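Hello again, I could really use a second opinion on something today. For a while now I've been wondering how a particular protein folds. Please have a think about how the structure follows from the sequence. Here's the protein in full, and shout if anything looks odd to you:

***
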Amino acid sequence: MAVVAKMAEDIGYPIMLKASWGGGGRGMRAIHDPKDLAREVTEAKREAMAAFGKDEVYLEKLVERARHVESQVLGDTHGNVVHLFERDCSVQRRNQKVVERAPAPYLTEAQRQELADYSTRIAQATNYVGAGTVEYLMDMDSGKFYFIEVNPRIQVEHTVTEVVTGIDIVKAQIHILEGFCHRHAGIGRSEAGRYPPQRPCPAVPHHHGRSGTELHSGLWPHHRLSFGLGVSAFAWTAERPIRAPSSPVITIRCWSRSPLGRRALQETIARMDRALREFRIRGVATNLTFLEAIITHPKFKDNTYTTRFIDTTPELFQQVKRQDRATKLLTYLADVTVNGHPEAKGRPKPSSDAAKPIIPRIQGDIVDGTKQKLDALGPKKFAEWVRAEKRVLLTDTTMRDGHQSLLATRVRTYDIARIAGTYARALPNLFSLECWGGATFDVSMRFLTEDPWERLAKVREDAPNLLLQMLLRGANGVGYKNYPDNVVKYFVRQAAKGGIDVFRVFDCLNWVDNMRVSMDAVAEENKICEAAICYTGDILNSARPKYDLKYYTALAAELERAGAHMIALKDMAGLLKPAAATVLFKALREATDLPIHFHTHDTSGISAATVLAAVDAGVDVVDAAMDAFSGNTSQPCLGSIVEALRGSERDPGLDPEWIRRISFYWEAVRNQYAAFESDLKGPASEVYLHEMPGGQFTNLKEQARSLGLETRWHQVAQAYADANQMFGDIVKVTPSSKVVGDMALMMVSQDLTVADVKNPAKDVSFPDSVVSMLKGDLGQPPGGWPKALQEKALKGEKPYTERPGSLLADADLDAERKVIETKLERSVSDYRIRLLPDVSESFHRLRTGRRYLWPGQRAADTGLFLRPDRRRGTVAGA
């Protein structure tokens, strides 16, 4: 060790320790301090012995700011040696080369000639025969060259020199060993020792790996190399999917035929960048984006990098992974084609001879509508305009509540967005298009594998003149529980930016305190806040005095004081009868000066009569569904309402012909969704018994079917009515309607009566949703919860009466963004913050190619704003 220490002292620290019989960084150590010498030499010798069978090592000068440059030489058996110029290989990681460039762009002509002379003299002095690589370190500061070694074998980077010189090095070696001199071995004077006009820069030995040059094993099902002018690629490949112990090395060569200079270098870098981006390698991790980051980095472009470039540039590793959209899409299509979509399994198929949906085209420009009027007047003045209108205004609900009530919200964005332009041109007198919110946000991702924000953007783009309307569940957002106030505000802000003009805000228990955060947020965005009163019971039934006329008029006055621009009466189950409508709307008309918007469902079959009675009583706006999506649990028929009012003082002024044409389109669309049609054959007066919201009716039937209760449906309906009374006769709309439905299904499946549930001596395992509601998580109904039932369900846990949102700390939205981006391994837009729960992870992973999942698959149900029911496939109520 004393001899080694003396050698190190003579060379001068820092020094580099290397294995004599190997490479690839094995046995290599950088030593800066004499006290580390003995330890490093011992470890290096041990590593060299394990790797190469010999433990010989040697010392050389360590250049701190070094460039790694090598010369190619060829010697024949007659004593002739020629050089084929140099290659730069300074871009390396863990002492393994990542990028090779020829010529070395930072050398002057004098330095290039100096290096060539060194290499030629070394080869001549050793009587070198064949191809060899003479390697040097160049001190970036002094410009001096330090000899490293001669590598006597063919490597992937030799192809760079072949492109530079036009010499086939492998063929030349064969001829040399056959006894030919270099002139007859394919190396002429005109080729050796001078550059032809083409200048390649760079060539990249490309290793598959998660980062840098680390190798990665796995199934390699598909690859596509890059080609084109100035690009060539070489790889170990197979014609079928393969599983290799380690992924192959791919060499890419790019070159420019321009004269040597900055223009040629930049052009070749651009070609390499294009080549890397065109590669498609599936099944294994690659370092494609890592290589892209290297060759586009400013230090690489201006030639100021050293051998420490990768190690000192951490941003090279902060690259977005490729998404693999094509493989993902093909896999999805193949599965659905062969196996069918799991959501449609066992369900009816569309008729094979059904007409295809054809968009009714209309020529001409889009004229201004309610959207432009709102923008010009602002929400308060706009509401005054609505109130002053003699004609009744109509909202088309087909794009949201219509298909939610009839087809379990399964209509795709494709079918919705492509007709929006026709609405804009043919029916510019509509008040609004209800196209978003409610269950559509959840279902579009969970079942349709669609982005709800994209749907909104497309409808907004094609219908720029109509108000777009959404349903907002107050403190529940578009989810099924209460969320922090700042999250609700943030969601409203993003929805407004995305294109929503009218926010129909409601609370499932008509608790105004629980609506205030949402209402204030809408007002702050200068959009229309339409505060909704949920209707239940029967104001003309003296036996149910809880929800009398005074209850509704007081609510209307309270909502006006809270800042509403419009009042909506939301009759989710279609319980409001014509006579009651006349009384109620006349009373509301006296209680508030705000416009009144009426929403109902046609489950009973008489909602059209109720609508006409409401119009006569002074309602300003009415919801209706396009003919083909109307009736039963949906809204009343838009075309029929228009015809009934045609020619009257309150004629809505819509073109009946275009209503029919658009309805023909929706009729053809509906035929494609036969799998999701309910078996409801017509109106059902049973709705006055159970009072189920139209949007819940079909879903609860599906739940009953999945539990084997299909033949006991009427018992479920009776249990629903019983559970409602047991809870104290509550307003039933999402999510409170879901709670009643959960309780009804449990009672029927376990053969429990109301007396059994109330019996203090009988143990009952209440559904989680019931426990949560009775604890106060959904808010407070008029008069509070039944005390005895509440105590039994909570089992000693104390309920609370405060507004649930006030008990929640504000969410850290910046932290949420980071969590989401970590999960998805990519950046996300503002729309995604706090709006991507685990339930939607399958959708986003399918979109980004991270993992293939069916739309119905999901992880733990802990997400915010999208908290589906624990029972599979349930989206209850509004």
Residues 436 and 470 are 5 Å apart (CA to CA). The first strand starts at residue 15 and ends at 19.
